[in-house]
Design goal:
Elements lengths: L19 H4 L15 H5 L2 E5 L11 E7 L2 E8 L7 H5 L8 H5 L6 H16 L5 H29 L3 H22 L8 E2 L2 E2 L7 H23 L3 H7 L7 H6 L4 H5 L7 H4 L20 H24 L18 H4 L3 H12 L7 E9 L2 E9 L7 E5 L1 H7 L1 H5 L7 H8 L3 H4 L2
Antiparallel strand pairs: 1-2, 2-3, 4-5, 6-7, 7-8
Helix pairs in contact: 5-6, 6-7, 6-13, 6-18, 7-8, 8-13
Length: about 425
């Protein structure tokens, strides 16, 4: 991969004036003019396979690119190298058991997956979790958003040569995984959010542990920004790269940071609030250019906004139950099982058979770190889902790669692929 020519990309981060050819695609200031070649020129094209490998270029994505010199004239993303059949697996498990496989659909944001699926099932049941459980859910998924963005930031920076950012980001993420482990016993794929509430209440020392993490977070974020915000190499590799206009982003069905970086103000937490998000004060970060740098800034600001949401939720966390008291839905407490035959029968029935869900179909969307993830869940009245279909935001992120990459240098593919933030357990279900 070559270093970009100095005349084309100034080292101070200024965006070069686009040529007339570049103006034909609004905002694509980092692209080169690509003329339609004759047969001889087409014969001189080189085809390269980028990936699949991990963590660089992300997961099991493979992009087949055609090059003229060092300019990308065609980019074709290919997925499907890892297929775990999670939706079909969920349809063969009890309603509560399916949470464990839904976790693994996005291994960087399992709690967001938990919440979307659980909210869909609760809609079918006509059920609402207790208030303390709802607040804990908000805290957990916002911490999960921060942890996911930190992985994106660290691997993105590593792909572009900023090695120290990788270590700082993963160190910050460790603190969040410690909180998950303290609450659920697992650091990844905790299956903490359950139908009717959460797995269990957080330990007495957990709130103090969380407050200590929140206090140390802002200075660590400033440290990361000092490393990248005005770094001339970072600016050189991200400004004007992989531009998507608002019209392109909407046409491609993008959501989340990819859409908001193009200036479109859509966030599921605001548009269709769930778990009481209407009570929390937060801004929806927006970009103006729709390039890789804007996608970086949007995610950085989202982490700061998530921090504020967690602080608000923690301040209103009141004592109370964390699971519904309906023994036909929730396992009875162990102390109750030891003294009550009825509770013991409920326990056996829930473990062996689960519970039946009234017939119906629902769609539940929520704002995951990668955008709108939606759960279409259908019940035929039995103890297992009849249909589980998931709208994965990463799939739409990936289909935007050709629009972002074609006309750029091959060296720019690193930045373009990194800013899509795909998680391919989610894409290749």
């Amino acid at each position: 991969m070559s270093v970009r020519e100095p005349k084309e990309r100034e080292r101070n981060g200024a965006v070069p004036v686009p040529s007339e050819a570049a103006r034909s695609r609004p905002g694509d200031v980092g692209r080169r003019e690509v003329d339609l070649p004759d047969e001889d020129a087409a014969a001189d094209r080189m085809t390269l396979s980028i990936g699949p490998h991990h963590p660089s270029t992300h997961g099991v994505l493979r992009v087949v690119v055609e090059l003229e010199g060092e300019t990308v004239v065609r980019a074709t993303p290919e997925v499907g190298f890892l297929h775990t059949g999670i939706e079909k697996n969920a349809e063969n498990l009890l309603w509560q058991q399916a949470i464990t496989v839904i976790d693994r659909m996005d291994y960087l944001s399992p709690l967001s997956n938990n919440l979307g699926y659980v909210l869909a099932v609760e809609k079918l049941l006509g059920l609402e979790a207790p208030e303390r459980a709802r607040v804990l859910r908000v805290i957990m998924v916002e911490l999960q958003r921060i942890a996911s963005h930190l992985v994106w930031l660290g691997t993105n920076a590593l792909d572009l040569g900023a090695q120290s950012v990788y270590f700082y980001s993963f160190d910050m993420r460790e603190g969040i995984l410690d909180l998950f482990e303290e609450a659920s016993g697992a650091r990844m794929n905790p299956s903490y959010i359950r139908i009717g509430g959460v797995m269990r209440d957080v330990p007495p020392t957990w709130e103090e542990m969380l407050r200590a993490y929140l206090k140390g977070f802002p200075p660590r974020m400033r440290q990361l920004r000092d490393l990248l915000d005005r770094n001339p190499i970072w600016l050189d590799r991200t400004r004007g790269i992989g531009v998507l206009t608002a019209q392109q982003a909407i046409a491609l069905g993008l959501t989340g940071p990819m859409l908001r970086a193009s200036g479109v103000n859509y966030d599921v937490r605001r548009a269709f609030p769930y778990c009481g998000y209407e009570r929390y004060a937060f801004q929806v970060p927006l970009g103006s250019r729709g390039d890789a740098y804007d996608r970086y800034q949007v995610r950085m600001q989202e982490m700061e906004e998530s921090l504020g949401i967690v602080q608000q939720a923690l301040d209103e966390l009141e004592p109370g139950p964390v699971m519904v008291e309906d023994r036909k839905i929730a396992l009875p407490p162990k102390e109750e099982v030891r003294v009550s035959m009825e509770a013991l029968i409920h326990h056996f029935k829930l473990v062996a058979h689960g519970f039946d869900v009234p017939p119906g179909a629902v769609y539940q969307a929520l704002e995951s770190p990668r955008g709108e993830i939606g759960f279409y869940v259908v019940s035929d009245g039995g103890n297992r889902p009849w249909r589980v279909r998931v709208r994965p935001p990463s799939f739409y992120n990936v289909q935007a790669i050709p629009a972002m990459a074609e006309g750029h240098l091959v060296a720019d593919l690193v930045s373009i692929l990194a800013t899509t933030d795909p998680v391919f357990g989610e894409v290749d279900r």
